[in-house]
Specification:
This protein has 185 residues and is mainly alpha-helical. The chain has 8 helices and no strands.
Length: 185
């Protein structure tokens, strides 16, 4: 692996962002869950009035759902709040909305972070990317399969459905840290 040198002044400028803040965490929870639940209620009442309005509110609410998942993500990285019981409770509550299991996801995601971008070790969470040499060695059928795999429909429609519905719920990863994982809904 190549080592990159980073200016020490640059690293010092990041220190102020490495500390958790209960106040900022609380504000993030309120300004993510508050609008999400409020829009959800509006959608319920708008449904009888207009399907298009309900759909539009759903699109807006999707952004707040992403914010809720970001909170879950930060809890999974142990960075949202310092108290582990509070952090895990927040993460579990977020997972009820995001439908991404909180117990399993941080394990696989942290392995992904540890090895992301290493062509020598492509594993959890990586989208298969071939080098030019690897692609040129594929048979015509293999190239066709790779192009289908990398298509918009697979990457942005089928892939996310597979990831949310199957990958995060079945113990498909065969690594020591996952040996005790069970099927979870």
């Amino acid at each position: 692996m190549n080592r990159i040198t980073v200016d020490k002044g640059l690293i010092k400028s990041f220190v102020k962002y490495t500390k958790t803040s209960k106040y900022k965490a609380f504000i993030q929870i309120v300004n993510s869950f508050g609008p999400f639940i409020g829009i959800w209620i509006l959608m319920y009442y708008a449904f009888d009035y207009s399907y298009w309005l309900t759909f539009g509110l759903g699109l807006i609410n999707a952004f707040f759902l992403v914010r809720i998942f970001i909170i879950q993500h930060d809890c999974g990285h142990r960075s949202f709040v310092s108290n582990s019981k509070v952090r895990n409770t927040i993460g579990y509550v977020c997972s009820l909305f995001s439908t991404i299991p909180y117990h399993y996801w941080p394990k696989s995601h942290n392995v992904h972070h540890a090895h992301n971008g290493e062509l020598e070790l492509r594993d959890i969470g990586d989208i298969n990317v071939l080098t030019v040499r690897e692609f040129s060695r594929l048979s015509p059928w293999g190239r066709f399969q790779y192009r289908i795999y990398r298509s918009f429909a697979v990457m942005f429609i089928l892939g996310p459905i597979y990831y949310v519905v199957i990958h995060n719920r079945l113990p498909l990863i065969k690594m020591d840290i996952f040996k005790n994982e069970k099927w979870r809904l």
